[in-house]
Amino acid sequence: MSWAAFITPVVMAGALWLMTRSPYALAFAALGPIGAVISLLEGRRGGGRERRAAAAERAAELERLRAGVELAHERLRRALRRRAPGAAAALASMEGPALWKGDEAVVALGVGTVASGLTVTGDAREPDELALCHLAERLDGAPVVAFPEQGIAVCGPDVLARAYLRGLLVQLFAALPPGRLGPPELIDAAGHARGEWDWLEALPHCSGAGGAVVPRFGVFAQARLVPPGYRVVVSLGSPVAAAVEVFGGENRAGSGSAEHALLEASVAPELVSRAEAERFVAALVARAAGLGLGAGTRALPAEVAFGDLPAAGGPRLGASIGRTQHGIAEVDLVADGPHAVVAGVTGSGKSELLVTWVAGMVSGRSSAEIVVLLVDFKGGAAFRPLAALPHVVGVITDLQHGEAARALSSLSAELRRREAELARLGVRDVAEARGALPRLVIVVDEFAAMIDAFPDFGPLFTDIAARGRALGIHLILATQRPAGVMRDALVANCPLRLSLRVQSDSDSRWVVGTDAASRLSASNPGRCIMSIDGAATEVQIARTTAADLAELAAASAHSSPRRPWLDPLPAVLTRADLPADAGRQVVGLADLPDQQQRAMLTFRAEEAPLLVLGAARSGKSSVLRLLADASGLDSVVVGADREHAWDAVEAAAERCEDPDAADSPGLLLAIDDADAVCARLGDEYAAAWSERLARVLRDGPAAGVYAVVAAQRQAGPMRSTLALARETVLLRQPNRQEHVLAGAPAELWDEGMPAGGGVWRGRRVQFLAPGPHLETLDGVRIASAGEPPARVTLVPARGSATILVSRSPARVLSRARAAGLPAEAVVDLTQPPVAGTLVPEAVLADARLPTGVLLVGDPDAWLGRWSLFAALKARHPIVFSGCDAADVRALTRSRALPPPLSPGSGAGWLVSADGRMRRCVLEAA
């Protein structure tokens, strides 16, 4: 409350008392102090509420931050436990799915405090804020991770040290399978002498060749006795506490980065008894025996060369693909199939398996016995080396831009063709056809990706799987996770299964009936489990090199097998790509995937009127010239020039009204960018031009006039006119919506359609690229598009008169005088008459003028002398220069539009005495 509010009641009360002398007036003086006291109390009360609210809000915000930090800490703990679960978890995993699923050789030294890697930003000043920042940086109760290959020394009493070290070994051998982990280097002379470490010799990891990782451990009485070479030293003081020291770098207990560096030396260790370790080893040995791992690994090579395998040969589809523990691994799609499923994660060698399998099948066989169609949804790089084999009839990659529908049509057509061929031969299946039909093997990499992108392929492949054996069509379907992607009806016909390394036991069991594929080592690509009718065998797939494939291609008979799958139409098509007997009327090729062939695309003038729709740079102009050349008729080809377009359509419309026009030679009228012409003409001219063009489209064929019109889209005043076309050629459209609205199938939409490519008669077509004689407008035979503009001289001949209407008469007169016209031969209606000079009526009075006369006026001046203008118009042509169509129609009293003028051309109109209008050009002489 301000002092003014406090003093005002006192002053007012004093004034009232002076005026009234009433003691009651002095009571008002108390209002000031009372109000001030009340205001002060209320302010203190309100300030207390605000402070309490702010404190509560701050406490709530800190609590939210604390909860977020604790949640992030829990996530980090879970991540570290997944990375290094600890000894107890390792013992519990002996019969579980987590066994041998580790990605790296790490162990948990125990539970302790490490750096979280979290920071709380902001300006922390208060104690509770500083405490929260400190809390965020520390991760309590987290596994302390270390790498055994860097060396771990355990110090302390023998019993404690060996129990702790057994916990580290159990963790390590539960995480990594045989082949990835070798026997440990363990220094403990007294322990070896007493047989403390004999149980290690039974481990499947310690049988045969060593793995990629060799852990190093040591047991010592005291830390000072540890020799150099051990990164981590663990000192055990009691069964519940140990101290960890890290040497040779940053204080990070084996962590790959400083993110989880050890903050406190003390950790809570895990101890494992010898009895527990021996039970653990027994469980590992049993699991390894069930999976064919361990000692058996010594008999299976880590790498096999395709050149070392024998060719399978034979009348079926046997192929040598690698080695087993007992010899050559052979598969036969006819005997073991007829179809196969291949599973494997990225990097497991799936593509290498498919390449080797295809190479094994074609080895020793000609393309008359087997052909291969390859489908790769990873870009085609994996199958590119196979393209050189004569047996490969197609390599399909990604199936973009309508290729999916084309694939469905082609493969469905192949089924029908083979059924018809077997029926013609009178046999039940391809085995009885005695080589009349080669077996077709369709290899699909990333089958799941293909089905996700194109669900319509599911029923087709199910149909092929059901009927393929009799028709000689075999499927090899590869994917990362087949479970849930392949239909039961499809899988039921795929008894041949091969699984490289997969992510989960369920995936492995789904493919090969055992979880062995999920235990395969990621460090040995090409290792797989092969299941034929439920019998599983471990196989090392052979590696096929480019030299192996080149040798196969050279040894194969280079015949040209029939291709069930044709390549898409080329982006550039020339006459040289057509058959030798292709005539002049052939303008391109049409793709017929449902008939597994291509057809020549022809054009005859009788098929007009024809509409060509396409976006900018889609090849409209080239197609227009190509059709004009193929018609064999005299052609008028017009571009976006509005004078040329108007005259050509006007002449064609007049011919349509001529009853004798049908006896004249045929004419092809080709109009390019019709919608652009319409836009440049303006509303009035566009409506008239569209009406004349509609007449040509409708009545032209009967008069021998055949129109081909090109435009970007059907819109505006041209929509109803272009709808009169008999057929539409649809070139590339700007988007799928306009493609469909134009009447083309949605599956033929292609945003990357090359110039000259399009859709005609429901087919994907590619028009010929323009030849040298069609690259310019003059290359096509061009008939006259109308009479040339008339020439009008500014200096009339003796005895003649030039009647001129101009919006700039002064400029015209200046040009005339510069050309030598004498002043006495000029009549300017815009100026008052001068005595002794010619008057306009003199042009009417004299039959022959003594000199040439130029009579000039602007539209307003001539409208003021209308009777004179009408009399002159009946005897002399009228020239309109620098005027517009409204001026012409106002003075001539005609509703007819004069022909349009190109902007900046300097042309005008010449109106003859009979009312005919044509363009003209004013010349100096």
UniProtKB/TrEMBL annotation:
Record-linked SMART domains: AAA
Pfam family, one: FtsK_SpoIIIE
Keywords: ATP-binding, Nucleotide-binding
Residues that, per the record, bind ATP: 344-351
Signal peptide start-end: none
Top-level taxon: Bacteria
Record-annotated FtsK domain positions: 325-509
InterPro entries: AAA+_ATPase (IPR003593), FtsK/SpoIIIE/SftA (IPR050206), FtsK_dom (IPR002543), P-loop_NTPase (IPR027417)
Official protein name in the record: FtsK domain-containing protein
